[in-house]
Design a protein that fits this description.
Blueprint lengths: L2 H10 L1 H4 L2 H4 L5 H10 L1 E5 L3 H13 L3 E6 L16 H5 L4 H12 L4 E6 L7 H4 L5 E4 L4 H14 L3 E7 L2 E7 L7 H4 L12 H4 L3 H19 L9 E6 L4 E6 L1 H5 L22 E3 L5 E4 L9 H8 L8 E2 L3 E6 L2 E6 L4 E4 L4 H11 L3
Parallel strand pairs: 1-2, 1-4, 2-3, 4-5
Antiparallel strand pairs: 5-6, 6-7, 7-8, 9-10, 10-14, 11-12, 12-13, 13-14
């Protein structure tokens, strides 16, 4: 389509007007944009990577975005998590809901669904229902391997991303065509080999680079331009100025991957699921109760009032209280984040003592 013809189409269709500059990019065009408008995405994790991903895709016109995140906003998030501000912290908003409110003001034509939940083998199928693609905004290998299992089993594309310090990794995964995550990383690295934000820090520009690569790959896939998908593993050190695209196809072609070659979905089956997870760089542990449990914030607040430092506070989304040296945040699904410890067993004890066994 000639440029003047494209401009005429935009004038005739107000739905496309905000995407005019994007549509003038020939590899996308009007056809690709219309595909984006019809696309559905589930984004798992809305922290550093996730907030940039959500912002980019909503502005690009992806028609439906489900944002799944288990966490709340803290002051140190604002350095790199671009959708949040100090007002969100004051309002005690979970990340998914704060992101939804902000994004809806950016593009009211996109349907945005906030799900305040931890992604597990019990609920990933429901959270990914109807999604054409899944995006990785997480910070741990257990969840990434779960996403990988699900996507390989259901033959759905997804885009992996990771960042720490000034280094980043990203990979597009087209199941049964490109290597899956377990082709490249068969097992999660041991904790001592897996630095966190707390030990290595993280630079905002590195976050933006990984998330922008992920978003571009997602747009290619959703727009039906799979021939343009990058089939190499992006690896970079932004501080040192080192960038590489690593050939990994042989890992699929010649490998014996337990997931995509042998059909062993160990994470999806819950074989490696944990009930208490140490959170990246937070000196905090998330405790997850059995599925289906709901809590009554008023009852918990009354129970904790006698032992808390200050008055427990809660809204429709979560409850916060400080007990001894611990900050306890409880969500409506019964999950709690215990800040002030990195020991799962200690966190479970606090949960049982103040919230319930």
């Amino acid at each position: 389509m000639a440029i003047h013809e494209a401009a005429h189409t935009i004038e005739q269709d107000p739905e496309l007007a905000r995407y005019s500059r994007q549509m003038l990019f020939a590899p996308l065009g009007e056809e690709g944009q219309r595909r984006l408008l019809a696309a559905r995405v589930t984004l798992i994790g809305c922290g550093a990577l996730g907030s940039v991903l959500a912002n980019t895709l909503v502005r690009a016109g992806v028609g439906f975005l489900r944002i799944v995140d288990r966490d709340f906003i803290e002051l140190n998030n604002l350095q790199r998590q671009v959708l949040f501000d100090e007002d969100d912290i004051a309002a005690n908003l979970p990340k998914a809901e704060a992101a939804r409110r902000k994004l809806q003001r950016i593009n009211s034509n996109v349907t945005i669904e906030a799900r305040i939940a931890d992604v597990t083998h019990r609920n990933i199928e429901e959270l990914a229902d109807g999604a054409d693609l899944l995006l990785d905004g997480t910070d741990n290998f257990e969840t990434r391997f779960l996403i990988n299992d699900f996507c390989v089993k259901t033959n759905r594309p997804w885009v992996y991303g990771a960042v720490i310090g000034a280094t980043g990794l990203a990979l597009s995964i087209l199941p049964h065509d490109t290597p899956c995550l377990r082709c490249v990383f068969e097992t999660a690295p041991p904790p001592e080999m897996n630095p966190t934000c707390d030990t290595a820090g993280v630079l905002g520009p590195a976050v933006n680079m990984v998330a922008s690569f992920q978003a571009a790959e997602a747009i290619k896939i959703l727009a039906g331009r799979r021939e343009a998908v990058n089939r190499r593993l992006l690896s970079f050190d932004l501080w040192a100025g080192r960038f590489a695209l690593l050939k990994v196809q042989k890992a699929y072609d010649e490998g014996d991957c337990p997931c995509c070659k042998r059909g062993q979905f160990e994470y999806l089956e819950g074989r490696w699921a944990s009930s208490a997870t140490t959170l990246c760089g937070r000196n905090a542990v998330q405790v997850t109760p059995p599925a289906g449990q709901r809590v009554d914030f008023a009852i918990i607040a009354a129970k904790m009032r006698a032992v808390s430092v200050g008055e427990p506070s809660f809204n429709a989304f979560m409850l916060k209280a400080r007990v001894d040296a611990f900050e306890v945040t409880v969500f409506a699904d019964g999950r709690a984040i215990i800040k002030g410890t990195s020991k799962p067993e200690e966190a479970k004890t606090i949960y049982a003592r103040y919230i319930g066994a």
